[in-house]
Structures are given as structure tokens and as C-alpha cells.
Write a structure and sequence with these properties.
The structure holds two protein chains of two kinds. Chain A contains eight helices and 19 strands. By secondary structure, chain A is an alpha+beta fold. Chain A folds into three domains: 132 residues, Gyrase A, domain 2; 84 residues, Aminomethyltransferase beta-barrel domains (Alpha-Beta Plaits), CATH 3.30.70; 74 residues, Elongation Factor Tu (Ef-tu), domain 3 (Beta Barrel). The termini of chain A are far apart. In chain A, 49% of the residues are buried. Chain B has a six-stranded antiparallel sheet. In chain B, strands 4-6-7 form a three-stranded antiparallel sheet. Chain B is globular and about 35 Å long. The mean pLDDT of chain B is 95. Classes of the chains: A alpha+beta, B alpha+beta. At the A-B interface, loops of A face strand 4 of B.
Chain lengths: 364, 126
Amino acid sequence: MEENLIKTCLHDRHVSQGALMSPFGGFDMPIQYDSITQEHNAVRQNVGVFDVSHMGEVRVKGKQAYDFVSHIFVNDVTGAPDGQIFYGMMCYENGGTVDDLLVYKVNDQEYFLVINAANIDKDVAWIKKNAEGFDCTVEDESPKYGEVAVQGPKAEETVERVLGIDCRDIAFYNFKTFEIDGEEIIVSRTGYTGEDGFEIYGSHDYIRRVWDKLMEAGVQPCGLGCRDTLRFEVGLPLYGDELADDITPIEASLSMFVKLDKPGFIGKEALAAQKAEGVKRRIVGIELAGSAVPRHGYPVLAGGEKVGEITTGYKSISTGKSVAMAMIDKPYDKLGTEVEVQIRKKTFPGKVVKKRFYDKNYKK
Amino acid sequence: MSKILENLRYADSHEWVSLEDGIATVGITDYAQHALGNIVYVDMPEVGDEVTAGEEFGAVESVKAASDLISPVSGEVLEINEELEDSPELLNEDAFANWIMKVKVSDASEIDNLLDAAAYSKICEE
């Protein structure tokens, strides 16, 4: 069952450090080292490091790289300075989401796309197919790169002191490339935790050295378990939960990343129509009374009728409250609406709230 | 290495039972609490519910997942451990000292189908 799982360049470290390993997006990934709670709190209060080498990297290069990226990406990279990063989605013609991703602008003729592990094959095929007719190349560089995310209020100090990388001048959602040990390293002030932090891309060898240095310095290793609890608390979506082939960014309450005023891009017509007509359902937050835990797929009810489903839910580690993101039919998506969540045989009362359960602490 | 108590009986689904005067006290094992990690919620039956050996009677929720509780005995629920409603982490602190429910068993011989400490410890080693 697990024979086809891909191992990241840090796999042997995870195993020898005793991490609980589990399949994720086709990779054998660490879920936790110590406990999800301990790792979560380390990132909120101090610093932690994640192996995110499973993420995919795609390089788009050529005279029409800007035109092509504009064609497949719902956010607008026009006029951005080199070194800026954009979050957004690639959509199908019908508005459904191919993937959510980061676009790193190297320059007008070169962009570096960071995509979800589980979607690498699908995304690369889709990007290449749509690149036909554009004067640019599309290269899947995923196997080449290892990646770690150093996250938490002490991330900047840690990256500078332990790794010797001069990162304090990198602004939020910007990146720099460094020549280290004869190779090019990419460092961006980005992450998926709601805390300040950096993501570092380099060769497998370099990323192994980075990991070992961070471990020697006593930085908390963090698994995908707390990566999910952290991103969830600040309302960040996970493809497969809040986004999917049949969920548009508008329905996912991510309209702010969809720039309908820019020239044509794939999915624009469908998304514009949905925005104009209003969505039939959308992602909201739900807060439950009591401490039963809502999980992905559990039904949300109003007046005894099913009006939606939980997409992600936890007993929030930072706040102690049982909260969830859920895809809810209109008009039950209004803030304050009283709903019930069915958890196994029982139903628990809750209400619709904003999907940010904990405030982000970005350094902007 | 998980703790296993000699004088209890065990289900292969990692519940423990002690039977005294026709009343079974049921909890989860140290192995189970360790495998689950931080426990954040215990979904317990209600007093008066009928439970059946081999069938689900509730769930234990860790941060990441919910795991069904399987009743090792059949009978009527006499009492639940209300302390776990506010302090589910007690199961992490001492799984054997913090029982989940007490059942008036309808068939005391069911306990003979359960594992003794030696047999259960083998399951935990697998």
C-alpha cells in the first residue's frame, strides 16, 4: 500500500527522529514528532521548522512568461517588482479550482510557481497544455528542490543566526535568491501558519544541511498535523478541503485574490458571472457550543435539514474552542445564523462566524 | 513501552474492563491514549443506554482524529465518568485510573472472550 510513496530529502531524518509518518499527497510525510499541540504552540510562541519538500515547483520562462502566467492565474501580477510573490488560484473554464499556488516573480520573463504536492502531476499537465501557443517553457523542477518552512515569531532571528542568511530585509510576500555554497537558494517571507516566517528552497543536500543545523540549534521539528491546525486557525484554505475541482475561489470566500478587472484569464467568465449573480453556497466559519469536534464531511443542519458540510474542524489549540470551516448553502451563510452540526449520532448547536479563529501575526 | 495492568481484561480494540459484582468498569488502555496523542473530547453514552459487546458506544477525539470506542461487554450503562467532559486530558495522564463508563452486564460470561494482560501485551507489540 505504501510502496509507491515518495520520500523527501529529509525522510531519513524524520524516521530517525521518531516521527509518526503517514501518506500525504503521494509522499511519506511526518505528521508529528512530539505532539501536535507542542509543535503548534512552538510555532505560535517561538519557532518551528517544517519539511515542505513535497510541494511542487514549476518554472515558467520565456518572452511570453508574463502573458502566460496572467492567462492561467486569477490574481494580477501586472507591474509587480521583481522579487514579489502572489497568492492565488488556477481555475478551469467553469471556475472550478485546479489548485491554489504561490507565484514568485523572478522577472517579466521568468516566474516560479509553487503548487500543492497532491496536485503536481495534474497541475503540470494542465499548465503545459495551456502553454501551447505561448512563447515560454514550462519546467517541472519539483524533484530538484527540497524545501523547509521556518515559522514563528522567532523565525527571522533563527534564520539569521542559525543559517547565516540575511533575511531581515525581505518584506512580506517577497523573496531573495542567495548564492550559498556555490548554489542558488531561494528565501521568501511566506508560510502557511499565520505567523511570521520564511520558506527556503534549495538542493536536497543544502536542505539536509539546513535541517541538521536547525536541529542542532534546538528548533522544534513540526509535522503536517500542526501545519493543518495552524493554517486552519487563521482561515487559510487547504486544497481538498476548502478548494477543489468543483469549488470556485468565489465559493471558497477567496474573491479578494480573483482580479476580475484584469484582461482575460481562464475561468474569468464563469467567475464574473458567479460574482454578479451571487454564489449559491460559500465557505464560512462555525463555532460550536461545547467541545465536540467537527470533522471534514460532517453534516451542517438548519431546522433539521442539511444545509452544508464541514470542510475542516478542530478543537482550536490556540483558543480552546470547537470551530470549523464549512461549505454552507445560502442564506444560512450569514454571520450569526444558528445551525447544528451532526457529530456521529448527536447534533450540537453552533453559529456562523468569521472564518478567522485566530489573528495572524505577520510582519509586514 | 505502554503500561498494562495484570488484573484487568482487554479487548483487541484497546479497551480495558474490570468486572465486580456484575458491574463492568470500562476505559481505554495506556497504549490507546499514547497512540491517540492529546485527547480533546470524549463522546460518552448516556446513563440508561444499552451497549452491546463488539459495538461502538462512543468515541475518543484527539487533535487529529476521532476513534470509536467499542464496548467489550453488553448491558445497561449505569454511570459515566463526568470528569472527562471537562477534562478529557485525564485519559492521557492515567488511562487506567480514569474509567469511561460502568455497565450492569447482561452476560457476565462475555468477559471470558476478552484477553488477559499477557495476550493483550502481545497485541501491543505487533
